[in-house]
């Protein structure tokens, strides 16, 4: 069956031009009458999938016209789809290789050979044998090592031509296997590492052959010399491109049998002649040999002895030179001499990260590379630009150099293999590693296709639309609908470029790198005895226990242990600077054990160095943070930056807590959810407090708000349950905050002082309504104080009428009656802080309105009440101050402490609030401000009271943060005192006695005001 050709050409991506028609006829794919034979349709379909179909047909025509057996070529194309894919792919992708086939038409038969099974495209031994044979060297002969070993029998221009021919012939085979899967689906995809290895083997064989040619041209009188060719860069890492410079360093030395005292100058002259000849021969035959990475660069000697190299790298080498040596590998010449060079430089490579400002130097070098790209090339630069190959390579190399000091598994020259090792070792996340490897593979593949187009060394995407389409199609992209292959390619490129840049910035500028690099290398590899000694020197009181914690965290081969081994050398330094290193490390182990099943925990610490440092600081300074963290690990995510930690507003936290509790199916689950949310907020506030990011009054506001919301959630849950159990709602109930809850001055360790008021609903029995209200109050108390991993919020109703002996819930009339008949002065004083916090808002407002005449007496207090309040205060000072407590440093009951200041301010309110409405406030600081405005306090006295109250409140909160338990007594000495000072912002390493002096000074000034105003003295 035949079809008319002209109407089918467009279908196969071919131009309907005289040149294309002529080429098709020359090959035998188009008959004289313009038809195509049915057997040739699969061939044209394959042509349609090539990078540039017209170019593929033209290449076939040139191949036949150059002397290839047309019948044999056509038969192979028709009968062997895999060969068809290889030949057409090359012809459609590369004008350079098409030119080579036209010049050497018999090379098409080389594409009949299948790729090797496994991971190699071409047999390395076959590559080397072919290159050596081209210059007349027997492949089995001892390799040329300088003046020793096999020399070429073909020299001069003939040798260069033979090497060029052999090189291009092998390059053709590698490229055909690489490109063919885009044309012929039955062919397996060629892995990028396999392609790069084959190209590197070809480069090594070319260097070795070039050395044999150079040796053959030496004069007979040349001094004996050995020469090692050390490959650098991509050749050294076995990840060479199709068209790269081959970076090398030359090492020269006397032969092993040279007599003592042999002339080094003559030996180096011979070695230099060999090296320069090698560079010229390979440059003419294949690619430029670049020796600019040698010591002192282009200004330095081309060849140095091992001793000279050792001296240079020991004394003068810069950071970038050690980074370059990461990829060094003996590639040709004298192998033992190359190995000796590696022994010399390798220790410097893996200790370079310990140099001062090493990380900064590497990062600065990458920025300089970017800055030097011309503006008009930035977007199309595959190698050096933003999101390009260098971003991946610099990030991987920096991680290797920093962490490879102690982890030999990372000492690998190849980028993709090293990236896999970094993932395996836990230094890079699995997802990040996979994304970076995919993007790097894409960029390298594009670079290869680009270089193959015209066999030109380039990393710049074409500006011409036709060339860009050619590039995209050569990589397997095809037009779909209205989108061209170039459109699809560009969309993928933009995505991969963004991925590379994101991960580059994440990994390359990871703060942890600076910290790890700053740890002396010898401290990362200590024996147990030396480690214990070092821990003791760092300030750990129990080094043996610290060693056990470290062993538990880092033993084994899991990723978790590997990440811990990276983190701990840095964290230990932070723990050592904390007030209690032992407690910090113990807390870190407990948190790590508790969060072992949380996949993002260690990943966050590894990837966000600031989080790791902050966590160590917090755990080393606060037992409360460690206690809270195991049940609220998500707060760690907020440590990434200051904004995340300080952004949440109390109102938003309250709304989220109440919404969570409302969704719970039972009262216990609702309160448990509220308590869990309260733990989260307490931890966030504690972290912000200790890091100096949230001020003292904002801490009080936040803790009060979340405590209030927790009480509201408990009230709603308890009310629902009681109504469900009893079948009807019979009472209105209000919860009134007292004490610090009412005053909106809740601290980390505060209880919730409350009283309950209830009123029967219309038609309900009063006794039954009060019984329901009692059930609600009792259930709230039990749920909020129930043992749980979350901090309890005990409800304390002892400030109700008759205290613990009184009824838990009363009606509003019962409260009024009690206040009128029995209320003592101290009960009036307690009512100053009464504020509705939960339940029926109208009833709560009625309660405080009823309390106003008693707490704000219109005529003030009579003298007997004033004397009684003073008497009670004196009794409290004597009876409630704990035995052994220091009255000068007890924050609550000590001289100038919270009780002194608050009783003084409350006495002012009781005496004057009836006449001064601005004094009718539940907060201490607002009452001080109101008394100052009203002229009841001088500005100086108000400042002393305010400063004393704030100092005592902050110190009391700091005591809770440091010890993890409610505490009012400032320690006399020791680590806890140092911890409190640090928690209050005093400098690391400073004398905590400065804090104690500051506290006592503020308390003393406040006490002087209290003595005058409260006692009337």
UniProtKB/TrEMBL annotation:
Domain Glutamate-ammonia ligase adenylyltransferase repeated: 158-342, 613-848
Record bears the keyword Cell membrane: no
GO BP of this protein: regulation of glutamine family amino acid metabolic process
GO molecular function: [glutamate-ammonia-ligase] adenylyltransferase activity; [glutamine synthetase]-adenylyl-L-tyrosine phosphorylase activity; ATP binding; magnesium ion binding
Keywords of the record: ATP-binding, Magnesium, Multifunctional enzyme, Nucleotide-binding, Nucleotidyltransferase, Transferase
Ranges of residues in domain PII-uridylyltransferase/Glutamine-synthetase adenylyltransferase: 363-508, 889-1014
Cofactor(s) recorded in Swiss-Prot or TrEMBL: Mg(2+)
InterPro entries tied to this protein: GlnE, GlnE_rpt_dom, NT_sf, PII_UdlTrfase/GS_AdlTrfase
Keyword Nucleotidyltransferase: yes
GO cellular component: cytosol
EC number(s) per entry: 2.7.7.89, 2.7.7.42
Segments of this protein annotated with the region Adenylyl removase: 1-512
Domain of life: Bacteria
Catalytic activity: [glutamine synthetase]-L-tyrosine + ATP = [glutamine synthetase]-O(4)-(5'-adenylyl)-L-tyrosine + diphosphate; [glutamine synthetase]-O(4)-(5'-adenylyl)-L-tyrosine + phosphate = [glutamine synthetase]-L-tyrosine + ADP
Gene3D superfamilies in alphabetical order: Beta Polymerase, domain 2, Nucleotidyltransferases domain 2
Region (Adenylyl transferase): 520-1017
Entry similarity comment: Belongs to the GlnE family.
Role description: Involved in the regulation of glutamine synthetase GlnA, a key enzyme in the process to assimilate ammonia. When cellular nitrogen levels are high, the C-terminal adenylyl transferase (AT) inactivates GlnA by covalent transfer of an adenylyl group from ATP to specific tyrosine residue of GlnA, thus reducing its activity. Conversely, when nitrogen levels are low, the N-terminal adenylyl removase (AR) activates GlnA by removing the adenylyl group by phosphorolysis, increasing its activity.
Identification of the protein by name: Bifunctional glutamine synthetase adenylyltransferase/adenylyl-removing enzyme
Source organism of the structure: Nakamurella endophytica
Species lineage: Bacteria, Bacillati, Actinomycetota, Actinomycetes, Nakamurellales
Gene that specifies this protein: glnE
């Amino acid at each position: 069956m035949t079809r008319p050709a002209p109407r089918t050409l467009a279908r196969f991506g071919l131009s309907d031009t005289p040149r294309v028609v002529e080429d098709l006829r020359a090959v035998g794919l188009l008959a004289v009458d313009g038809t195509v034979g049915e057997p040739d349709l699969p061939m044209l379909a394959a042509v349609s999938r090539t990078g540039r179909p017209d170019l593929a047909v033209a290449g076939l025509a040139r191949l036949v016209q150059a002397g290839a057996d047309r019948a044999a070529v056509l038969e192979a194309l028709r009968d062997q789809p895999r060969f068809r894919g290889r030949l057409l792919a090359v012809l459609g992708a590369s004008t350079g290789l098409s030119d080579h086939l036209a010049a050497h038409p018999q090379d098409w038969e080389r594409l009949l050979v299948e790729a090797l099974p496994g991971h190699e495209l071409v047999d390395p031994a076959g590559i080397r044998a072919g290159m050596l044979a081209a210059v007349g060297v027997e492949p089995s002969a001892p390799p040329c090592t300088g003046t020793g070993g096999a020399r070429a029998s073909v020299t001069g221009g003939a040798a260069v031509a033979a090497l060029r021919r052999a090189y291009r012939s092998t390059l053709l085979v590698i490229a055909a296997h690489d490109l063919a899967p885009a044309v012929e689906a039955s062919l397996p995809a060629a892995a990028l590492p396999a392609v790069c290895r084959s190209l590197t083997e070809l480069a090594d064989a070319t260097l070795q052959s070039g050395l044999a040619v150079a040796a053959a041209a030496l004069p007979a009188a040349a001094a004996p010399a050995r020469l090692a060719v050390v490959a650098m860069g991509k050749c050294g890492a076995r990840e060479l491109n199709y068209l790269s410079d081959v970076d090398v360093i030359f090492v020269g030395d006397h032969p092993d049998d040279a007599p003592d005292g042999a002339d080094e100058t003559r030996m180096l002259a011979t070695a230099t002649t060999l090296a320069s000849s090698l560079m010229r021969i390979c440059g003419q035959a294949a690619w430029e040999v670049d020796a600019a990475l040698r010591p002192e660069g282009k200004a330095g000697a081309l060849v140095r002895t091992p001793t000279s190299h050792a001296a240079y790298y020991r004394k003068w080498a810069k950071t970038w030179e050690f980074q370059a040596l990461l990829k060094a590998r003996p590639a040709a010449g004298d192998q033992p001499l190359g190995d000796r060079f590696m022994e010399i430089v390798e220790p410097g490579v893996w200790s370079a990260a310990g140099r001062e400002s090493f990380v900064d130097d590497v990062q600065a070098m990458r920025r300089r590379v970017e800055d030097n790209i011309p503006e008009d090339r930035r977007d199309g630069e595959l190698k050096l630009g933003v999101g390009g190959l260098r971003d991946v390579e610099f990030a991987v190399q920096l991680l290797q150099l920093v962490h490879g000091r102690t982890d030999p598994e990372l000492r690998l020259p190849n980028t993709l293999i090293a990236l896999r090792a970094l993932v395996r070792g836990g230094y890079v996340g699995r997802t990040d590693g996979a994304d970076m490897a995919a993007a790097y593979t894409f960029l390298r593949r594009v670079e290869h296709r680009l270089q193959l187009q015209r066999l030109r060394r380039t990393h710049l995407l074409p500006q011409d639309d036709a060339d860009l389409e050619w590039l995209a199609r050569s990589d397997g992209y095809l037009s779909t609908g209205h989108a061209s292959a170039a459109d699809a390619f560009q969309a993928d490129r933009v995505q991969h470029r963004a991925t590379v840049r994101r991960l580059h910035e994440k990994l390359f500028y990871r703060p942890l790198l600076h910290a790890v690099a700053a740890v002396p290398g010898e401290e990362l590899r200590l024996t147990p005895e030396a480690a214990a000694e070092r821990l003791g020197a760092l300030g750990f009181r129990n080094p043996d226990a610290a060693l056990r914690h470290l062993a538990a965290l880092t033993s084994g081969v899991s990723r978790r242990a590997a990440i811990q081994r990276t983190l701990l050398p840095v964290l230990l330094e932070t723990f050592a600077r904390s007030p209690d290193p032992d407690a910090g490390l113990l807390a870190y182990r407990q948190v790590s054990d508790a969060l072992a099943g949380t996949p993002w925990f260690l990943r966050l610490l590894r990837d966000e160095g600031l989080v790791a440092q902050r966590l160590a600081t917090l755990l080393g300074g606060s037992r409360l943070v460690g206690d809270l963290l195991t049940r609220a690990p998500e707060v760690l995510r907020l440590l990434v930056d200051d904004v995340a930690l300080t952004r949440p507003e109390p109102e938003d936290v309250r709304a989220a807590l109440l919404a969570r509790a409302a969704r719970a199916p039972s009262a216990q689950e609702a309160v448990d959810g509220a308590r869990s949310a309260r733990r989260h907020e307490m931890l966030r506030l504690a972290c912000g407090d200790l890091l100096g990011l949230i001020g003292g009054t904002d801490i009080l506001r936040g803790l009060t708000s979340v405590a209030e919301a927790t009480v509201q959630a408990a009230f709603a849950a308890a009310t629902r349950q009681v109504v469900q159990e009893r079948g009807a709602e019979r009472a209105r109930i209000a919860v009134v905050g007292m004490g610090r809850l009412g005053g909106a001055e809740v601290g980390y360790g505060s209880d919730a002082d409350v009283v309950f008021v209830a009123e029967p609903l219309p038609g309900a029995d009063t006794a039954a309504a009060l019984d329901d209200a009692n059930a609600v109050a009792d259930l709230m108390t039990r749920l909020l104080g129930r043992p749980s991993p979350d901090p309890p919020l005990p409800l304390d109703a002892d400030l109700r009428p008759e205290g613990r002996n009184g009824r838990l819930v009363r009606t509003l009339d019962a409260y009024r009656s009690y206040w009128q008949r029995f209320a003592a002065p101290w009960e009036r004083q307690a009512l100053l802080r009464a504020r509705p916090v939960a339940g029926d808002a109208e009833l709560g407002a009625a309660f405080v309105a009823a309390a106003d005449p008693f707490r704000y007496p219109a005529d003030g207090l009579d003298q007997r009440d004033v004397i009684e309040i003073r008497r009670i205060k004196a009794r409290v000072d004597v009876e409630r101050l704990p035995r052994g407590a220091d009255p000068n440093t007890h924050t609550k009951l000590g001289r100038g402490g919270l009780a002194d200041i608050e009783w003084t301010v409350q006495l002012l309110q009781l005496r004057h609030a009836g006449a001064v409405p601005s004094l009718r406030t539940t907060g201490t600081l607002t009452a001080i401000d109101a008394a100052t405005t009203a002229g009841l306090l001088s500005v100086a006295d108000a400042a002393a009271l305010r400063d004393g109250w704030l100092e005592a409140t902050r110190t009391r909160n700091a005591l809770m943060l440091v010890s993890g338990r409610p505490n009012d007594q400032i320690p006399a000495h020791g680590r806890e005192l140092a911890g409190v000072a640090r928690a209050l912002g005093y400098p690391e390493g400073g004398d905590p006695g400065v804090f104690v002096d500051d506290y006592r000074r503020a308390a003393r000034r406040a006490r002087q005001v209290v003595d005058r105003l409260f006692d009337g003295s």
